[in-house]
Amino acid sequence: MGVHRGLFAGEQHTHGLWHVSRVVHDVWCNGEVSYSERLWPSAWLYIACALVIPASLLVFLPISITAGVICAAVLYLGAMGLLIIPAPRIEVSGRTLRVGRAHIDVALVGTVAAYRAAEATAERGVRLDARAFLCLRPWIDPVVRIELLDISDPAPYWLASSRRPDELIGAIETAKALTS
């Protein structure tokens, strides 16, 4: 795996192993994206999924060492793929807010609030409206509640997990101020 140090233009958000950093709150090279976050699984989840390795080895080693090692690798990589590939992105670019596959013009966004700890649990539980659009990940505690002003949208608000809710709120408020 190669390590690079800014070989190409617009790579200020890479951390040296050809991966984009988890959270970017800056203007990217196209000048439009003001906030971008990918809801990657946390480190403890990678470690917990590694338990599939000894389990599959115990099952397949009596058959063949090669089969045990291959099955362990395939099962671990498959479990990681099922967590990494569908990881949603939260993005504020220009006049658009994207949360997962949903998107809305920031002019149609009302109040935006961040919740942590017990308040976040209450937002995901007892205070949750069944009509709300959800983009939640259990390994991320803070949530952001985004009220919608669009009367044609059946969801009264969006509830999304975010590792940096204050930065997300700031980006949404900045985008709203620029559009009005």
TrEMBL record:
<dbReference type="InterPro" id="IPR021443">
    <property type="entry name" value="DUF3093"/>
</dbReference>
<keyword id="KW-0472">Membrane</keyword>
<dbReference type="Pfam" id="PF11292">
    <property type="entry name" value="DUF3093"/>
</dbReference>
<feature type="transmembrane region" description="Helical">
    <location>
        <begin position="43"/>
        <end position="61"/>
    </location>
</feature>
<keyword id="KW-1133">Transmembrane helix</keyword>
<feature type="transmembrane region" description="Helical">
    <location>
        <begin position="67"/>
        <end position="85"/>
    </location>
</feature>
<keyword id="KW-0812">Transmembrane</keyword>
<protein>
    <submittedName>
        <fullName>DUF3093 domain-containing protein</fullName>
    </submittedName>
</protein>
